[in-house]
Every structure is written in C-alpha cells, then in structure tokens.
Specification:
rod-shaped, mainly alpha, 212 residues, two-stranded antiparallel ribbon, 60s Ribosomal Protein L30, Chain: A
Length: 212
Amino acid sequence: MLRFKNSLFILSLFTLVLTSCVSQKKFQAALDREQSLLTQNTQLNDEVVRLRSQVENLQKDNARLISQIDEALKKYSEASGQANLTQKQLQEEQQRLLELRRLLQQQRDAVENLRKKMADALVGFNSNELSVFTKNGRVYVSMQESLLFPSGSAVVNEKGKAALETVAQALNNNPDINVVVEGHTDSIPIRRTFEDNWALSVARATSIVRLL
C-alpha cells in the first residue's frame, strides 16, 4: 500500500512538473506573440506616420501645382487677349495698306489717263516744241519758248495760242485737275521792256494763265 502511494506521489509530481513546463512554454509563446505584435504595431505606426507625411507633401505639391496652373492659365488668357488684339490691329493695318494701294493705283491711272489725253490732243505739234510727261504723280506739259513767245517778249504768238487752246479744252473736260503754270527764261540779259529775266518769266506765266 505504501509502495502504491509512493508511486502515485511520483506520478503526481511528474504530472505537476510536466504541467508546469507546458504552462511555461505557453506563457513564453504568448510573450513572444505579444512582442511580435508590439513590434508589428510599432512598424505599422511608423508606416502610418510615413504615409501621412507623404500625403501632406503630396497635398502641398498639389496645391503648388494648382497655383502654377492657375497662373499659367491667367498668363495664357492675357497673352491670348493680346494676340487677338495684335491680330486685329494687323488685319486693320493690312486693310489700310490695301486701301492706300488702291488709291495710289487709282491716282496713277488718272495721271496716266490725263497724260494720254494731253498727248493725243497735242499730237499735231512738233515734239521739239512741246512734250507731255509724268513726274512725281503729276502731268507736265512743257512748251518751248519758240512755240509760245518771241524772244524777250511776254506776248503769246498765234501758234502758242493754238497750243494753249488745245490744252484748255483738255483741262475743261477734267474740272477736278489743279493747274500750276511756271514760266522760265534763258540767261540772256533783258534790256528792253522788263527789268530782268525774272520779271519776264513772271509776265509770261501771267499771260499763259490769262489764256487758259
């Protein structure tokens, strides 16, 4: 009976020791899991902090990009408005140049038409006595002294009167034309009616105007 009790005691003691060892292992395993979880939690917290920092940086970058886009759109709008204004001004300038060219061509055509009319009207006179030409947008009818006046005189001769009458008829058909009469003489001194050559030139121009 005593031997049985001893055996039972040994068995109980072994069971207690075995149970104690198992509990210690479970406890250690639980501690290890807890430590692992704490480590993972710390890592996750660090990751959350890192991600939050990235989000804040991205938000700042996004705000900066939005500001840059707004500024770029503003500049584009201003540049577009200036470009439209410049384009409009360019078109207006081109239109003005076209109009000036048209008026210039119209004036040239009118001058050439008048020159032709004058030349046709005076075709019966010798070319060495009379010439019709254009210069600087004007029509010139140049008549030599021998056609109009005796030497040293401001009285128009008959042949000169006929030439001037032909010119007058052509001018009457073009009432919008402005006429300028210029008198010229040679350098031979005047010793009779006129004080000098300039006075003779003025008198001759006056005679022409009166006939026209």
